[in-house]
Automatic annotation (TrEMBL):
<protein>
    <submittedName>
        <fullName>DUF1918 domain-containing protein</fullName>
    </submittedName>
</protein>
<feature type="region of interest" description="Disordered">
    <location>
        <begin position="44"/>
        <end position="64"/>
    </location>
</feature>
<feature type="domain" description="DUF1918">
    <location>
        <begin position="1"/>
        <end position="57"/>
    </location>
</feature>
<dbReference type="InterPro" id="IPR015035">
    <property type="entry name" value="DUF1918"/>
</dbReference>
<feature type="compositionally biased region" description="Basic and acidic residues">
    <location>
        <begin position="55"/>
        <end position="64"/>
    </location>
</feature>
<dbReference type="Pfam" id="PF08940">
    <property type="entry name" value="DUF1918"/>
</dbReference>
Length: 64
C-alpha cells in the first residue's frame, strides 16, 4: 500500500449494511508512502492506522 498526504483512505464495511469509513491522510509515517498513516475522518476525529486488506487508497483529486 502506498499513499501521499491528501489521499483518501477508504475502509470498507465488514458486514452487510455497514457503510464505508472515509478519511483524509494528513501524515504518512512510514517509509516511501507505506503505513502507518495519520488520518482525519469526516467528523474531524484523527487517528493513526495501518490499514488492512479491507481498505483502499484513493488518490486526491487534482485541481486545475
Amino acid at each position: 500500500m502506498h499513499a501521499i498526504k491528501g489521499d483518501r483512505l477508504v475502509q470498507h464495511g465488514r458486514v452487510v449494511g455497514q457503510q464505508d469509513k472515509v478519511a483524509e491522510i494528513v501524515e504518512v509515517m512510514g517509509d516511501k508512502g507505506s503505513p502507518p498513516y495519520r488520518v482525519r475522518f469526516e467528523d474531524g476525529h484523527e487517528a493513526v492506522c495501518s490499514p488492512g486488506p479491507d481498505a483502499e487508497i484513493r488518490p486526491r483529486e487534482t485541481r486545475r
